[in-house]
UniProtKB/TrEMBL annotation:
Residues 24-252 form the Outer membrane protein beta-barrel domain. It holds the Pfam family OMP_b-brl. Residues 1-32 form the signal peptide. Keywords: Signal. The keyword Zinc-finger does not apply. SUPFAM superfamilies: OMPA-like. Gene3D superfamilies: 2.40.160.20. InterPro entries: Beta-barrel_OMP, OMP/PagP_B-barrel. The lineage of its organism: Bacteria, Pseudomonadati, Pseudomonadota, Alphaproteobacteria, Sphingomonadales. It comes from the Bacteria. This is Outer membrane protein beta-barrel domain-containing protein.
């Protein structure tokens, strides 16, 4: 079975199951890895990665204060807000101990809301989610002999997530207030990710890589504002959770 035939079903199912792509990468890597492994040359390195978020979602949960109620005419947000494909990238430094690598990175992610999925016959949806990520990660090279090195790994860290998501009643009258609901705020959350990929040593010091990643960020809390059909304004809290499946290409350069 080829690497392409192994990854194809996972790619097709990635939007239905965010972990499918990671599972496909991991399966392909295990199949491609020989049993024998030899120690790789250690050394410090810098790394740069960039790619696309294939699927990303925001899951808001409204939290009402004690005794607080929401009018039945107030528009609501779905429990899962789908996003279009977006950008993801990171820069970092690490150390290769000889088949085991540890690195620290700073990254940036951004994706627009899937406006069609968020809209209804009555409401028009729009928005964007952005995040600044800081983290540490560890990777194990499954093959340490030869230029081709499949690897698996993962990391933990923190993300500063910026939300701007809204639903607005469709009305042809310009300049008038309309019933709406929106989230607009920033907060830090705990982030973890699982990675699988493969690198190729162009020279003893320079490697290129292809990496698949599933990440999840939780623990954020932001304010939401709504106007019901009587244009009564109400503020509520939302607990937020983000998930993302992405593919990146990278370059590692040893010192």
């Amino acid at each position: 079975m080829t690497l392409v035939s192994t990854l194809a079903p996972a790619y097709r199912g990635a939007r239905r199951n965010p972990a499918a792509l990671f599972a496909g990468f991991a399966a392909a890597i295990v199949m491609a890895s020989p049993a024998a492994a030899q120690k790789a040359e250690p050394g410090a390195y810098v790394v740069a990665r960039a790619g696309a978020q294939i699927d990303s979602d925001v899951k808001p949960t409204q939290v009402l204060a004690k005794g607080q109620t929401v009018s039945k005419t107030t528009p609501t947000l779905p429990k899962n807000i789908d996003h279009d494909g977006g950008f993801t990238g990171e820069l970092g430094m690490g150390y290769d101990f000889g088949g085991i690598r540890v690195e620290g990175t700073a990254g940036y992610d951004t994706a627009k809301v899937n406006a069609k999925a968020l809209s209804t016959k009555t409401y028009s949806g729009a928005g964007r989610t952005k995040s600044f990520d800081l983290g540490v990660a560890a990777y194990v090279d499954l093959v340490r002999d030869g230029p081709f090195k499949p690897f698996v790994g993962g990391g933990v860290g923190a993300s500063r997530v910026d939300y701007s998501i809204s639903r607005l009643m469709i009305d042809k009258t310009p300049g008038t207030q309309k019933p709406m609901v929106g989230i607009d705020g920033k907060d830090w959350g705990f982030r973890w990710h699982l990675d699988a990929g493969a690198s190729y040593d162009v020279t003893p010091q320079t490697s290129i890589e292809l990496l698949g990643r599933y990440s999840q960020t939780g623990g954020m809390k932001v304010k939401g504002v709504s106007l019901d059909e009587s244009l009564v304004r109400q503020t509520t809290d939302y607990k937020m959770k983000n998930t993302s499946t992405s593919i990146m290409v990278g370059l590692r350069q040893k010192f």
